[in-house]
Amino acid sequence: MPKKPIKRSFKIWASCDAKTGFLYQFEIYTGKDDSTENEGLGYNVVMRVCNNVPSNTLVAFDNFFTGCNLMEDLFDKNTYAVGTVRSNRKDLPDVLKNKKQPKAMKLAKHEFVSVTAEPITAIKWMDTKEVTVLSTAHQPRDVMMVKRTQKDGSRKEVLCPKAIASYTLSMGGVDLFDHFRSSYPISRKSRKYWMRLLFFIIASIINAYISYNDSHVATIHCHRDFRLRLARALIDNYTTRKGHAQQGIQFKNKKVVSLEFQKKYDY
């Protein structure tokens, strides 16, 4: 992907909790297959990843995935959805399409227009630019106050459709998971391509940390401390040095740890 900072990599589809970043399910993209011909790649990915989602769950995704057929099929499975949508998607109402409209029909800043065709509500909201979403979880007239940053840096409360506000709050799950991964990366360079996938699977450490925080005070046990304690528990004073199998490596302080590893490398 030439426009990305990392141009060559593996593509992994993931579904994460919006509040904690907990990774529920992921799927490694292996290229096009026959199943993408009818509904498209985005549709098939969401339906597979959300196959085991509990009923009455709200799922949020971006405009690569959103389409009318996907929203309807998720609703039939008792799964609500909200997502931004591209104006050139099929079956969209005219108010969401980028057609030349007379000045009288154009929206002023922070105005919105909505159209409903059960169970889908289509909304266009004018922020700094047009924002278009589809939702099966919100009513067309549901609004709330949100804070927006002005040109002078100040924060001002403006009226916003609840569907767009809900989408903004629900779309941070995957980004939060990526943040945890990038904070203490474990990936290493390797000539074996599958090692990259193995390092991603080891990201289950992040799920363990999130689960740990559910029953402990997160401010006391930071991410770094959790990883150190986990590593020491997995090592469990184990050493490959002969005659020291019982003693092992003692994690008393940083100086002792450094001394033990220095002795190992001196051989």
UniProtKB/TrEMBL annotation:
Which keywords annotate this record? Membrane, Transmembrane, Transmembrane helix
Q: Which residues form the PiggyBac transposable element-derived protein domain?
A: 1-209
Known Pfam families for this protein?
DDE_Tnp_1_7
Say yes or no: keyword tRNA processing present. Answer: no
Among InterPro entries, the record links this protein to: PGBD (IPR029526)
Transmembrane annotation, as ranges: 193-212
* Domain of life of the organism encoding this protein: Eukaryota
**UniProt keyword Membrane, yes or no:** yes
Q: What is this protein called?
A: PiggyBac transposable element-derived protein domain-containing protein
The organism is Parnassius mnemosyne (clouded apollo)
